[in-house]
Design brief:
- The protein is α+β, with helices and mostly antiparallel strands.
- Helix content is 45%, strand content 11%.
- The protein contains 14 helices and nine strands.
- The strands form two sheets. Strands 3, 4, 5, 6, 7, 8 and 9 form a seven-stranded mixed beta sheet that branches. The protein has a two-stranded antiparallel ribbon with strand order 1-2.
- Helix 6 packs across helix 8 and helix 8 packs across helix 14.
- The radius of gyration is 23 Å and the shape is elongated.
Length: 351
Amino acid sequence: MRLLYKRIEELEEENRQLKTKVFSLDILKENDEEFQQFTNFPNYGVFKALCQYLYEICNGDLNYWRGSSTDIGVKHRLNKPGPGRRMTFEEFFMVLVKLKTGDFNLETTRKFGMSESHMSKIFSTWINFLHLELRVLFEMKTNWNDIKSIPKRFQQYPDLISIIDCTEARVERSGLLQARKETYSNYKSMDTVKFMVGLSPNMTINFVSKAYGGRASDKHITLSSDHFLNALPLNSSVMADKGFNVSRELRDRGVKLILPNYKGSDRSQMSAEEAANCEAISSTRIHVERIIQRIRTFHILDATLKISKQDVTEQMFTVCAYLSNFQMPIVNIHSVLASPVSESESIFDFI
């Protein structure tokens, strides 16, 4: 018996040592720096809060991915019969790691000890579920009762709803001529997919458009984004760069487009007032460019997006965009200039 107990102790010790070598949520959650490195979340607490919210939304049940006809995340709403999948923190963690690191499927399966087909089904299930629910969580806000939640730089534009800009991600070149005509971007000189991103005055992403081919102009994407346009209230304003030539169309909707002033070719320089206005707009609008750079810290967007993944390309970018809202704010709301957020402030104070 003594030898048996000794053997059990040896196996338990071996098990503890093996656990420290396995890539798992239980290991990383204790280290905020490593947790952020692999998930883009500042710490486990933020991750857990979102998990609990998502669990309540779907009552812990996810419809397992079985193709594009699957109703992900709506089983509890539609009362549909059929097999479901109990959501777990570990699966969500795996999806975040894949989005953040951009690992190939084989690398991810080795980290988490599962088959490639099983991992692919889990990823597709979660990416579609998150695509549905995060958009609802960050619906465009049209009024700000608490002005203190808005950085001082933005308070000079009291009717501002969103700052918009477009960004592109490289996609695999199609063998179809018509598809190549739609995806080729003259700006990037490559085949791309293009999105419009909106940043709210409280520094969170409040809109992500559908995916368009790289050929699409900023104006076309804006005017095709009905969900965005219909959410803009009367007498509100939107800020953009000079490529968004939609002033007349927005004016017809009772919305003002805030653009930098143009010097034109008929004068040597702008007036002092125009220059000051341009500087104010640029220093405010630059934050949408900074938030787009944050989206790109999800390295799954670094690689050329495959044609075989075109059914989830839009979902992946949108999810990466809205997940960026759970990082620490890019500016201190009490300061005109960008500065670190104090320890007493929570990420959820800015959402």
